[in-house]
């Protein structure tokens, strides 16, 4: 039996659209849906999100409502992507060698390149590093903020020796970012933290910058475009009594040096 062309075309269109109606998105055209998925994926209806989630990883807004979910992922040994006050980073439990190794695999990074840790509050730093040689109030003046302080681990540090093996020092961050600090507090450990990008590639200031790596994370938390640029945190070695050494200028070097010198620290002389 010959079917009129217009009738056949209409039947095919209805058949194609019906699965989309079942997903609660009947009012979108197919091309519109693809555009919506590429640009505004986190706002998709939950049923559609479940369909696409297995392909690119699960994207969530970086809000308090999703903090508990992130904490549980950390406790389960997963890697998550989070915003900080400088760049987007990959984070995991610093005391889980398996999770730490996973970060190295995702980034394609050599194990000889050390990872920093992130804690929720300045008062937590002493659990992981030696701080009793520092002037009173120094760490509280630098942190929370876009600074990584390098300190000696010490014999009482609860950080696993498998993190940065062979190094007696550890870089510590307390970002000025509530979301990652809530996660660090809730996980009751330190987070291993490094920039969310392939090793040697530009750092990420929005989640689109590392979209090719989403699928390797349990969750990707979207905090929008970060305003501080790609310089990252200022890294300063404070492991020696009365001395400091800038290891990376980063985004806050002038402010950092001013605080250090206000607390009577002197720059470490360059090696001859």
TrEMBL record:
<dbReference type="InterPro" id="IPR050156">
    <property type="entry name" value="TC-AMP_synthase_SUA5"/>
</dbReference>
<dbReference type="GO" id="GO:0061710">
    <property type="term" value="F:L-threonylcarbamoyladenylate synthase"/>
</dbReference>
<dbReference type="InterPro" id="IPR006070">
    <property type="entry name" value="Sua5-like_dom"/>
</dbReference>
<comment type="subunit">
    <text>Interacts with RSC1A1.</text>
</comment>
<dbReference type="GO" id="GO:0003725">
    <property type="term" value="F:double-stranded RNA binding"/>
</dbReference>
<dbReference type="Pfam" id="PF01300">
    <property type="entry name" value="Sua5_yciO_yrdC"/>
</dbReference>
<keyword id="KW-0496">Mitochondrion</keyword>
<comment type="similarity">
    <text>Belongs to the SUA5 family.</text>
</comment>
<dbReference type="GO" id="GO:0005739">
    <property type="term" value="C:mitochondrion"/>
</dbReference>
<feature type="domain" description="YrdC-like">
    <location>
        <begin position="64"/>
        <end position="252"/>
    </location>
</feature>
<keyword id="KW-1003">Cell membrane</keyword>
<keyword id="KW-0808">Transferase</keyword>
<dbReference type="GO" id="GO:0006450">
    <property type="term" value="P:regulation of translational fidelity"/>
</dbReference>
<dbReference type="GO" id="GO:0000049">
    <property type="term" value="F:tRNA binding"/>
</dbReference>
<keyword id="KW-0963">Cytoplasm</keyword>
<dbReference type="GO" id="GO:0005886">
    <property type="term" value="C:plasma membrane"/>
</dbReference>
<keyword id="KW-0809">Transit peptide</keyword>
<protein>
    <recommendedName>
        <fullName>Threonylcarbamoyl-AMP synthase</fullName>
        <ecNumber>2.7.7.87</ecNumber>
    </recommendedName>
</protein>
<keyword id="KW-0472">Membrane</keyword>
<dbReference type="InterPro" id="IPR017945">
    <property type="entry name" value="DHBP_synth_RibB-like_a/b_dom"/>
</dbReference>
<comment type="function">
    <text>Cytoplasmic and mitochondrial threonylcarbamoyl-AMP synthase required for the formation of a threonylcarbamoyl group on adenosine at position 37 (t(6)A37) in tRNAs that read codons beginning with adenine. Catalyzes the conversion of L-threonine, HCO(3)(-)/CO(2) and ATP to give threonylcarbamoyl-AMP (TC-AMP) as the acyladenylate intermediate, with the release of diphosphate. Participates in t(6)A37 formation in cytoplasmic and mitochondrial tRNAs. May regulate the activity of some transporters.</text>
</comment>
